[in-house]
Design a protein that fits this description.
It contains seven helices and seven strands, in the order αβαββαβαααββαβ. The longest helix has 11 residues. Strands 1, 2, 3, 4, 5, 6 and 7 form a seven-stranded mixed beta sheet that branches. It is globular and about 45 Å long. The chain is α/β, with parallel strands linked by helices. It has a single domain, classed as Rossmann fold (3-Layer(aba) Sandwich).
Length: 206
């Protein structure tokens, strides 16, 4: 389910409708559909898509004219993208000069055993009973996902990026609703790392 704060961040950062928006890693198309309802012209892509309205194509293979989008949005998707550098270069080609980039991410380098243990404790399906301990989870994710630093390095040559704003993320990851406040309190107390990061950027004028 699309979190209200995610939608608020995306909507508040994108240019006004009817801007043409590329969504990278659109999943089931929920965010794209909501943006369309708000008047945006959206092209949603995800290589794992099972069909329309999300196109099953990888970012670096998207066949579209250069500078054909007013903005691009990626919600917890760029950390999966391969090949990363080529994909970020293609993303820059697709966004017009002056266009916006809106990114909501999970920073795997800040995800530690405290975060994994808290997440497992909140699960209602007994995931912690099936051999997935905190240490194993951290190692697996760090081995397979791009860090936030790596993403910023790949996007930096192509976009003027604003500093990331750190915050909670775990409450959105396959957990029961209503845990955002608890996670925020634990972050403020120093008991959990802030594994979420949101930032925006602008494609420089030529």
């Amino acid at each position: 389910m699309l979190a209200d704060d995610v939608l608020a961040f995306v909507s508040g950062t994108l240019p006004a409708p009817p801007a043409r928006v590329l969504e990278v890693g659109a999943g089931n198309g929920e965010l794209a559909a909501t943006l369309v309802e708000r008047g945006y012209d959206v092209v949603a892509i995800d290589p794992a898509s099972e069909g329309p309205p999300v196109a099953a194509v990888a970012l670096h293979e998207l066949d579209a004219p250069q500078a054909s989008f007013d903005a691009a949005v990626a919600v917890v998707s760029l950390h999966h993208v391969e090949p990363l550098d080529e994909s970020c270069r293609r993303l820059a080609e697709l966004v017009r000069p002056g266009g916006r980039l809106v990114v909501d991410e999970f920073d795997v380098e800040r995800y530690d055993e405290r975060a994994a243990r808290w997440w497992l404790e909140q699960r209602s399906d007994g995931a912690h009973e099936h051999g997935r301990g905190p240490g194993e989870m951290v190692a697996k994710l760090r081995a397979h996902l791009h860090s936030l630093e790596r993403l910023l390095d790949a996007l930096g040559p192509w976009f003027s990026l604003e500093p990331p704003v750190r915050g909670p993320y775990l409450y959105r990851w396959e957990l029961p609703p209503g845990l955002r406040g608890s996670e925020e309190q634990l972050i403020a107390a120093g008991s959990l790392p802030a594994t979420g990061a949101r930032f925006a950027g602008t494609r420089p004028a030529r």
